[in-house]
Design brief:
- The complex is a heterodimer of chains A (about 210) and B (about 650).
- The mean pLDDT of chain A is about 85.
- Helices cover about 55% and strands about 10% of the residues of chain A.
- Chain A is built from nine helices and five strands, in the order E-H-E-H-E-H-E-H-E-H-H-H-H-H.
- Chain A has a five-stranded parallel beta sheet with strand order 2-1-3-4-5, sandwiched between helices.
- By secondary structure, chain B is of the alpha+beta class.
- Helix content of chain B is about 55%, strand content about 20%.
- Chain B has a five-stranded antiparallel beta sheet, sandwiched between helices.
- The N terminus of chain B is likely disordered.
- Classes of the chains: A alpha/beta (about 210), B alpha+beta (about 650).
- At the A-B interface, helix 1 of A face helix 13 and helix 14 of B.
Chain lengths: ~210, ~650
């Protein structure tokens, strides 16, 4: 729990039943988790989601757009918020579908508070990690932008495990020129070793075929 | 000639004639004497002669002779010397004789003249008579002649008529649509009329048998047998047989044969008239068949026929009617008999119907109970109407149906239907159980979550009692909510017999809306209520009526499921119509009912839904009708269908 006013994370609740919204609000407050409960999916989409670790507790049977449909809408909009589904009754095909679509958990009402707490904690962690990863990749991508076209080619070939001599042969350059390019790449990308550079290339999804 | 004429001639004129004779002579003498004395004229005989002539003319010979005698006397007395005496001087005698001769001559002449005249008259009279007689004869002859002519004319006419009649008879014989045959005394055919010849297509004139050659082989033997009998007894007889037409087709004919006898009473010929009875035969067959049909049908359907000639109070019953009424076939039916069978409570009604019949009513359709001798109760249904025959007489003709079995079935059906209504209530509940479970589960989940929150707030140091209070308030609220749901469900399940109470339709609709809220939401149905305030209460079984509305609402929701391009709007309306009935209308905007199914949606086992049982609407209709109401469907102006339930209001129902 952060001491500052700015919360580190938040739990969103979407349920058309007021009792459920109130009860979940109470529960998450008792867990010291910041919570925001709304009555429908569209209401949630209207409000701007804060850029902090968050998760969504969603009733699978929603009026209008159902929970599963909403999950799909979010995925298509590129909103990668982890979802915990609640259902009135254990509907196995529905839960399988939800889990396949990337739901974090599937809870049957009424649920144990510990199960909900575990699910939310897990979801928030997942979101936090995703956000951190996202931050690292965006740094690397900015560095990649600094490379010249030739340097990118060299990066792709080197990280795919080719020797300097082989790279020179492929690009019809002298071995010395390849060494110079490689030195620039290591410096610009801030890589401490070749292994470091290979990990970065992996994160950026670079390989020989897609320089 | 009158019979008095001879008397007049003989009696009266005789005296008169002699009188005339005296008078004439006297007058002549007086004139002579006068002339002599006044003028001294010599007395003349001429006046006396004139007197004699007059008398002879008028009176005849007798008086004339008498007048002559008188004149001679007077002549002698007054004119001959000495005068005034009858004494004669001899010289005067020749004068007297001369006078006498002259006088007699005159008398003779006159008499001759008179005879001639008389005979002329007689001749004339005789001729006259002859003419008259001739005229009479003539007249007679003329009359006779006219009569004869008339007779001749009549004879001529009758001869012409006879010829005509013969001709006509020939025509009749040849053209009546009857085959006419003559048989000899021994039965052999010797004449066939034109119709017969053209029917058979045979022109033979040389017959050799008693039975015509075109008779169906199977029918020959009975006819021959009949001939044998007839020839022995000389009695007329009748047969039926199939006769072959020129085209080879056999038709049924009836033949009647009568003997012709001479004065001695011997049979000299037989005449036969043969007429087509094919159509009659067929009609008879058809009638017999239809009677058989009817009898079977009546037996099967337990429906009898009856007719009542009201004017003459004659009843006609078919066998089955006797069977139904429980009387022997031999009994003559009467109103008293009917009355005797009819259930005492229904007799007044039967009297009423009979009076209607007597007053000329046309249609009758009523049910009655009969009490059979063994105490068994029969339910019968009578349908009849007035029939006017061509003869002018009228009857009430109809059918009497034993509906006892149907009645029993109906009662059973009612019981089954009631069970079905309950079952369907349970089924409806099953269909919406997921929603109802959710309805209960939702507050329970909220209660649990709130409870757990409370525990966590209480575990804090210090316990967060403000939040605990808020959570507990909600726990109470949600607990009550769950209880409400369970109460409603229990109501839906309650297997009470129909218990009719005053029901506020709007309350009922609100309750249904609440019960189905979740279910409708899951179907993306937006429910709208338009409830007219102050709708009078209806007298109904609350649970059953609720079931009807749930059914209609769920049907509407399902009808909108396939619709993707417009909102799923469902409207429940309540209002009172112009006939003061309370109406609940459920209007969807779904796929609608295809025209050809519109009439059938209320039929049992008819469903437009794949896998649908087809009981819902059928049960709804039975429920509504059991409440004296009506349930019907109509297509909306826009998409979808509206189902309407109209029920009599409580007050009207009680009235």
């Amino acid at each position: 729990v952060n001491e500052s006013n700015q919360p580190q994370h938040i739990v969103f609740v979407v349920d058309d039943d007021e009792s459920m919204r109130v009860a979940l609000t109470h529960l998450f407050q008792s867990m010291n988790l910041p919570v925001k409960a709304v009555g429908s999916a569209s209401e949630l989409l209207k409000s701007k989601l804060p850029d902090i670790a968050s998760c969504l507790v969603l009733d699978i049977r929603l009026p209008g757009v159902s929970g599963l449909e909403f999950q799909d809408v979010l995925a298509k909009a590129g909103i990668l918020i982890p979802i915990i589904f609640m259902t009135g009754h254990g509907d196995i095909p529905m839960s399988v579908k939800a889990m396949k679509a990337g739901a974090v958990d599937f809870l049957t009402k009424p649920f144990r508070d510990q199960d909900m707490l575990d699910a939310v904690t897990h979801a928030l962690d997942q979101d936090r990690r995703r956000r951190e990863g996202e931050t690292a990749v965006s740094g690397l991508r900015a560095r990649l932008e600094l490379l010249t076209a030739r340097e990118r080619e060299v990066l792709a070939h080197v990280t795919s495990g080719l020797m300097n001599k082989q790279v020179a042969g492929l690009l019809q350059l002298s071995e010395i020129t390849v060494k110079i390019h490689r030195g620039h790449v290591m410096k610009k990308m801030g890589a401490r070793s070749l292994a470091d550079l290979v990990r970065m290339a992996e994160m950026l999804g670079i390989d020989r075929k897609s320089p | 000639m009158s019979p008095s004429a001879p008397w007049r001639r003989r009696a009266s004129p005789v005296i008169l004639n002699y009188g005339i004779a005296i008078l004439s002579v006297a007058v002549a003498v007086a004139i002579d004497v006068g002339l002599n004395q006044l003028f001294g004229v010599d007395p003349s005989v001429s006046l006396l002669l004139c007197a004699i002539i007059l008398v002879a003319w008028v009176g005849g010979t007798g008086p004339a002779m008498f007048a002559t005698a008188l004149s001679l006397s007077a002549f002698a007395y007054f004119f001959l010397q000495p005068t005034h005496s009858f004494a004669l001087q001899p010289k005067e005698v020749p004068r007297l004789v001369l006078f006498a001769i002259a006088a007699l001559f005159v008398v003779w002449l006159s008499a001759a003249q008179r005879r001639a005249a008389a005979s002329l008259k007689v001749a004339h009279d005789a001729r006259q008579e002859t003419v008259r007689e001739l005229q009479e004869l003539n007249e007679k002859l003329r009359v006779e002649n006219t009569e004869r002519e008339r007779a001749e004319n009549a004879l001529r006419e009758s001869q012409a008529e006879l010829a005509n009649a013969r001709h006509e008879f020939q025509l009749i014989i040849d053209t009546v649509p009857v085959l006419i045959l003559r048989h000899r005394a021994d039965g052999i055919i010797d004449f066939v009329n034109q119709v017969g010849r053209s029917y058979s297509g045979m022109v033979t004139t040389n017959w050799t048998s008693r039975t015509s050659a075109i008779t169906h082989p199977d029918d020959v033997r009975p006819i021959e047998a009949a001939w044998d009998v007839a020839l022995a007894t000389g009695e007329p007889f009748e047969t039926q047989a199939r006769l072959r037409r020129a085209d080879g087709q056999y038709r049924w004919f009836a033949t009647r044969r009568v003997p012709l006898r001479n004065d001695a009473c011997e049979v000299i010929a037989w005449y036969a008239a043969t007429y087509d009875i094919e159509d009659r035969k067929r009609a008879e067959d058809a009638l017999r068949r239809s009677e058989a049909y009817s009898a079977e049908a009546q037996k099967l359907s337990k429906a009898g026929s009856l007719a009542w000639d009201v004017a003459n109070d004659i009843h006609f019953w078919s066998d089955e009617t006797y069977q139904i009424m429980g009387f022997e076939r031999s009994v003559k039916p009467s109103m008293d008999m009917i009355m005797q069978r009819v259930h005492p409570d229904d007799r007044a009604h039967l009297h009423h119907e009979a009076d209607r019949a007597r007053q000329g009513a046309h249609h009758f359709d009523y049910e009655q109970r009969l009490v059979m001798p063994d105490g068994q109760i029969k339910h019968v249904h009578l349908r009849a109407h007035r029939v006017k025959y061509e003869s002018g007489s009228e009857e009430i003709v109809g059918a009497l149906m034993d509906i006892t079995q149907a009645r029993k079935s109906q009662e059973t059906l009612h019981a089954v239907q009631a069970a079905l209504v309950h079952a369907s209530g349970v089924a409806t509940l099953g269909e919406i159980s997921a929603s109802i479970a959710h309805e209960v589960n939702q507050p329970l989940a909220a209660i649990v979550a709130n409870g757990q929150a409370c525990l966590r707030f209480l575990r804090r140091e210090p316990p967060d009692l403000d939040n605990v209070r808020g959570a507990v308030e909600w726990i109470v609220k949600d607990g009550n909510r769950a209880g409400e749901v369970i109460k409603r469900v229990r109501g839906l399940l309650k297997n009470a017999g129909t218990e009719k109470i005053a029901v506020d339709v709007n309350d009922l609709i609100n309750e249904v809306a609440e019960l189905l809220r979740r279910e409708l939401a899951a179907h993306q149905v937006a429910l709208q209520l338009q409830l007219a305030p102050g709708v009078p209460a209806i007298f109904a079984d609350r649970i059953q009526l609720q079931q009807v509305i749930i059914n209609l609402v769920m049907n509407g929701a399902e009808a909108m499921q396939p619709i993707a391009d417009r909102p799923h709007g469902l409207e429940i309306r309540s209002y009172q119509d112009e006939t003061r009935r309370v109406v609940v209308a459920v209007k969807d905007s779904g796929v609608g009912i295809p025209g050809e199914s519109a009439d059938r949606v209320f039929d049992a086992f008819f469903s437009t839904k794949p896998g649908g049982l087809g009981m819902g609407l059928s049960i709804c209709r039975s429920i509504v009708e059991a409440h004296g109401g009506r349930l019907w469907a109509s297509a909306n102006a826009g998409p979808g269908t509206t189902f309407q339930v109209a029920l009599p209001s409580h007050r009207e129902n009680a009235a």
